[in-house]
Amino acid sequence: MSGITDYLKALWMGFISLPVILVIIQFLSTQLSLSRFGIFLTLYKGTPLSINYIVKWLLLAESEALHGVNFWAIVITWGLGWLFISDWVRNIKATFLGVFSTYGLYILYLSLYHRVALKLVFPESFIPILLALASTTIMYYLRKVKKTKTFFERLRDSGVAIPESYLKKVKLPTTCDECGAIILSNSKYCWKCGKDLENK
Hints:
It contains 7 helices and 2 strands, in the order αααααααββ. By secondary structure, the chain is mostly helical. The protein folds into 2 domains: 144 residues, no CATH class; 38 residues. Helix 1 packs across helix 4.
């Protein structure tokens, strides 16, 4: 069941966040006056942006999106977007499925809902999928290599003294020796008879 939930998280975040990231990149390039350095991103031309126009850019189906800085903005959008999504979802199979499904949903959204005739060019139009898969794979291996610390290890590293009784590993569920009640948590006393479980 968690695989389906992870897939739906990846799909939802991919479908929603990529247009937002692209608009943020356009906003930052304008606000930081990157045109002084020859960086001209032409997504926004002074008129309100429609979501179908942004999605056409994300699919590289808009001819303007294939050139220069515009192309690199799409590369950054797909790469960063799926890097963050895969870090959040933490399930590489679900994220891979989310990448393909997001791309497919964008196509369905434009062709069925907006009746836009799409012209996808091979291989350029499929570069976003490869970038998303590469980002997902990179994040997967970064998480695999990086040792995750437990909460108590982080506390100890920050200088907080942890009592040894908190670090004792307890196999759950367990039973009370006194009354035979099933204990589902690492409690000090039995919930049924009150026996001290730490001092057996």
